[in-house]
Design a protein that fits this description.
It contains ten helices and no strands. By secondary structure, it is an all-alpha fold. The chain starts with a helix and ends with a helix.
């Protein structure tokens, strides 16, 4: 039975836009409930919660932002500084898009969710879209396209990204559609970063607005 017939059977009338969205919401909620197999201590796969929560932390925004800022503070390599600067911009763009979407849609998290997440903020009470999913896909796309990694590491990178997305549903943190939209948002953000990616000279110039990079500029210019 196709979606239209299901909708007509459910609502006893022709499917319009409102009914279609309501149907999708019901499908999303039922599918999420079936897949949230590690949401609580009494869930069928509750023994996986520590590993899934470790995955959750591995893609948390605070460690990634903090790592980028620390790298900018400590590094003296112009090319590396430029790369980290672009990563920081990508992470900030992701946060802005996710916060705007969450504040606009204001979908609450699934009832199966246990609010024991690492370093949460007010906006983290909202579910749509999944910030972890968008960030995981964004980072995986950037690393895959900008770093010449061995095939093994590329496979691990993709596996990490998929695992992050899957863990959001398994832990009951998000609905399935939250994660799907989050992953699509991550792809969109990557396409945006391709357009605005800064070269070393431009990135160092922008960084010089906030701190002194004269010695890095001199070293970089002398290499050209």
């Amino acid at each position: 039975m196709n979606i239209k017939l299901m909708a007509e059977k459910t609502y006893g009338e022709k499917m319009d836009g409102k009914n279609f969205l309501h149907l999708m919401k019901e499908v999303d909620e039922k599918l999420t409930k079936r897949l949230s197999v590690s949401a609580t201590a009494s869930s069928p796969l509750s023994h996986l919660r520590p590993y899934l929560k470790a995955l959750e932390i591995s893609c948390h925004g605070i460690p990634w932002l903090g790592g980028c800022i620390l790298a900018l503070w400590l590094s003296e390599n112009p090319q590396f500084l430029a790369y980290v600067f672009n990563m920081l911009i990508a992470l900030l763009i992701d946060i802005i898009f996710v916060v705007i979407a969450k504040a606009s849609v204001r979908r609450r998290r699934p009832k199966t969710n246990n609010m024991d997440m690492f370093m949460t903020f007010t906006v983290d009470k909202l579910s749509f879209p999944s910030g972890h999913a968008s960030r995981a896909v964004l980072l995986a796309c950037i690393f895959y396209s900008t770093l010449s990694l061995h095939t093994v590491f590329n496979v691990l990178l993709v596996a990490w990204s998929i695992s992050i997305c899957s863990s959001r549903v398994l832990l009951g943190r998000h609905y399935v559609f939250d994660v799907v939209f989050g992953a699509l948002l991550g792809i969109f953000e990557f396409k945006l970063m391709v357009l605005i990616w800064c070269g070393s000279e431009r990135a160092l110039y922008i960084l010089s607005w906030f701190t002194s990079f004269e010695n890095f500029h001199a070293d970089y210019t002398s290499e050209l």
